[in-house]
Amino acid sequence: MLKGHLDMIVLAALAAGPAHGYAVIEEIKRRSAGAFDLPEGTIYPVLHRLEEGGLLAGRWMTADSGRRRRVYSLTRHGERELSAQRALWERFSEAVGGLFKGGRPSKNPA
Amino acid sequence: MLKGHLDMIVLAALAAGPAHGYAVIEEIKRRSAGAFDLPEGTIYPVLHRLEEGGLLAGRWMTADSGRRRRVYSLTRHGERELSAQRALWERFSEAVGGLFKGGRPSKNPA
DNA sequence: GTCGTATACCTAGTAACGTTAGGTATAGTA
DNA sequence: TACTATACCTAACGTTACTAGGTATACGAC
After folding, report:
1. What is the mean pLDDT of the segment spanning A10-37?
2. Model confidence over B53-86: pLDDT tens digits?
């Protein structure tokens, strides 16, 4: 479960350049060193949602093999959203770090 | 949205010692430097779920003020779960880091 | 040649989760 | 007396990711 960070992850995977859905899955897997191995049923609805939201632009293309693919690229809006999500992520992960460090421990709890 | 990390966050807040629900909220807020300011309606169901799952033990206590509180503490199982969640978190945040760094960029995409 | 696998797309249904929006009650303070 | 802070709770809702299917083509093995 990537709960809520999936949009960010997909946007990040497309930051380097356009890709089609299947390639996005592999790119995410590669960049995360195998940690995120997402099923297609997870990715495709996200791509559709992001496209509908104007964060991605998708267009059909035909590969050399003759196979049809839907290639997605970040829109301006999507780039801005990625920056925002990234900033949020920094704050989020710092806050979690603070949770683990514990701050000053409360004396004599209970 | 803390989507899926909430259990970990609550467990982490209780790692320093037992606390009642309202105090957990404040502890989380303090340790996260204000980043996580959770409404009660978010925390209480989590506490109940964690207790039902055997990760927390709750008991009613009466404060000096005479106010009744439900004080939760980590069980052995809860401690183990926290360790596991923390390890998961490390891997997760590393993977997200990898996503942002991008690994080696794919040449000439689409 | 055909059989299996990898590629490539899709959607309906489900379950979990966090939030919203309420409700109750007591202690302390203005 | 009234308001605020403390302290607990739950029902309903919307979002989200996952499961589990389905379709179709390219390619290599046999």
Report:
1. 95
2. 999 999 999 988 888 899 999 999 999 999 999 9
- Measured at the CA of B1, the angle between CA A106 and CA B7, to 5 degrees, comes to 50
Residue whose C-alpha is closest to residue A12's, from A88, A102, A100: A88
Residue B7 has pLDDT above 70, yes or no: yes
Q: Nearest to residue A95, comparing CAs of B98, B6, B100?
A: B6
Contact A16 B98 (CB under 8 A): no
* CA dihedral of B44, B48, B53, B57, whole degrees rounded to 10: 100
Closest nucleotide to B25 by C1' from CA:
D7
Q: What is the pTM of this model?
A: 0.88
Query: Closest Cα to residue A17, out of A64, A78, A84?
Result: A78
A:69-98 Cβ neighbours of strand C under 7 Å? 69-71
**Averaged pLDDT, A70-83:** 96
Q: Measured between alpha carbons, how far is A6 from A1 in angstroms, rounded to an integer?
A: 9
- Which residue of chain B is at minimal alpha-carbon distance from A110? B18
